Request: fold
Amino acid sequence: NAGVTQTPKFQVLKTGQSMTLQCAQDMNHNSMYWYRQDPGMGLRLIYYSASEGTTDKGEVPNGYNVSRLNKREFSLRLESAAPSQTSVYFCAIYRGLTGELFFGEGSRLTVL
Amino acid sequence: RKEVEQDPGPFNVPEGATVAFNCTYSNSASQSFFWYRQDCRKEPKLLMSVYSSGNEDGRFTAQLNRASQYISLLIRDSKLSDSATYLCVVPDQTGANNLFFGTGTRLTVIP
Reply:
């Protein structure tokens, strides 16, 4: 997906370690999102950013921080990873005209 | 009550069959709806948007029943390539540009 790029694609952490998931878009959209997807739970919103410099909590923000320093990039940080944060994380941009969320390829995180 | 609930599945159907999935939503104020497709270990991708009573795109038909608050997705003449998980999606009506996703219905088309 040239539009939304996530890194890393795979990561294994030990409990208590920290890491940052990076997301960058080249589609010039204002709104960016971080979701997590767990079996039987569907996609759940962690944080979103309506524009550069603004962020808001979603449904499941606990244990995460985000940063939107510029229009292109929206990062998600786990300060002290827990096994409950084992999940697949998706970054997305919102295409307002179509009401569509356009996703990155996902980042698979395992916390041991 | 969850904002969006879907048929649990899985659905296993032979090639050429017609299959339908249902999805119910809780907020009667919802005006637009979406079906996303997600292949195994891939990201979700928009399949269809539904803004009025329904939408048709080739073999795929989405229908909306506002009175009963459900959306259906009908797939005719199923292909092996239709095997995927189908997510029912409803926008958040609180003003945030967010979408609520159902847990998905898994479809396997069998040769």
